[in-house]
Amino acid sequence: MRKNREGFTLMELLAVIVILAVIALIATPLIMNVINDAKKGAARDAGYSVIKAGELKAATSGIENTNPPYHYDEGSNLPMKGTKPTKFTLDINEEMDTQLRAWINGFCVIKNYGNETVTIDENQTTETDCVNSEPATDESCFVTTEFISEDDITIHEDQCVAYLKEQSGENMQQEEIEKICKNEVIPGYDATLKEDIIDMYYDGEMEEINALLDNGVITIKDAKSVTIDDYHFENKKCTTDVVIPSKIDGKKVVAISDAAFYTWIQNEQVKSNRELEMSPITSVKFPSSIISIGEGAFYENQITGELDLSNLDNIKEIGLEAFVSKNRGSYKTLYLPNKYINYLKNDYSAPTVLDDFFNASYLKIKKGSIDPEDIIDEYNHTIEDTDFCSQFSNVVEETDEYIKYGKIDC
Fold first, then answer.
1. Are 323 and 356 within 8 A, CB to CB?
2. What is the Cα–Cα distance from 17 to 104, expressed in whole angstroms?
3. Distances (CA, A) of 180 to 151, 156, 188
4. Domain ranges of the chain
5. What tens digit of pLDDT does each residue of 19-54 get?
6. Taking burial as the number of CB atoms within 10 A of a residue's CB, which of 158, 225, 280, 365 is the most buried?
7. pLDDT at 133 exceeding the cut of 80
8. pTM flag (> 0.85)
9. 326 φ, ψ to 5°?
10. E strands of 79-173, at which residues?
């Protein structure tokens, strides 16, 4: 006789499939993170192997009476074990300290002078950018403060309304208070509550901010970013050729304050021994994480040739006279990112950097999703109603990376 066999119903099968899908949805990111962390660890270990091989090679060179500094790359036949980088540079200075840039299994592995740890630079995503980029200036050269943005501030509307009502008495209408607590601008004011909080934060007015925090009006996330406020020119290891790191003390560098690289320099040629205001900076490279450069940040600098801002894809503003050079006209070329130039405008409706570069001969625009011609048109249109009697229009050079325009004077 045939026996009846009961199987799963369609609903039961669907339930099982849904459960498996949920498990996969939860487990997949965790597994991928574990795999990625393991790959990073292997890449760091390979970086240490490169350094040890270089130190061994350097010790042998010392025996052979070849003095440091030493430079090695993938053509140096270092006695490495394990995974080898596809491309790298390893430098060993007179103190036998090491500096590494290596592309290993898709990761940019770095170690700078003065640091013991090999790390992964996640801002460098290509072999060329990783190995060919200059090592960052030592983090100890920079003075920073925590950077907060509006996204870091949460306003609790109910507590906010109650607190402001109590504080203002009859001086403010209920409607005005509610708008403030919704982070809206009210008549007679030119800023939102969050903007006021940020201004108070950077002005050091912590008493008022603490009152808002203590009364539950706002909460502020722990800052994960910093702004550079000053630079230790007096320290010999802090050179005037500055490569700003993407992170300082593990926090992303997103801004440069007003006059951050501006200082007083003793002028020994002046008999009165008076001091001159200037920035000794002779070159500067920025991480792409920068969103703001303050007024006079590099005022009276010593930079010549080209100022390269082309990687500042996230820039939102560049302050007035941020890049005025000590010797007017020392800049020959300004290299801008592939984005419209609203970040260059100041209160006088003129492009800030054009003001700084009024004697520049060339303007380079990085190629990208925006046609460089559109950026040039906007640039030229912006200065039509200003005192700057020059525009950029004729193409003098074009590569896969940029288009370079020459200046035409009126």
1. yes
2. 39
3. 17, 11, 12
4. 14-132, 149-220, 225-409
5. 888 888 787 777 777 788 889 999 999 999 999 999
6. 365
7. no
8. no
9. -65, -45
10. 87-92, 98-104, 107-111, 119-120, 142-147, 153-155
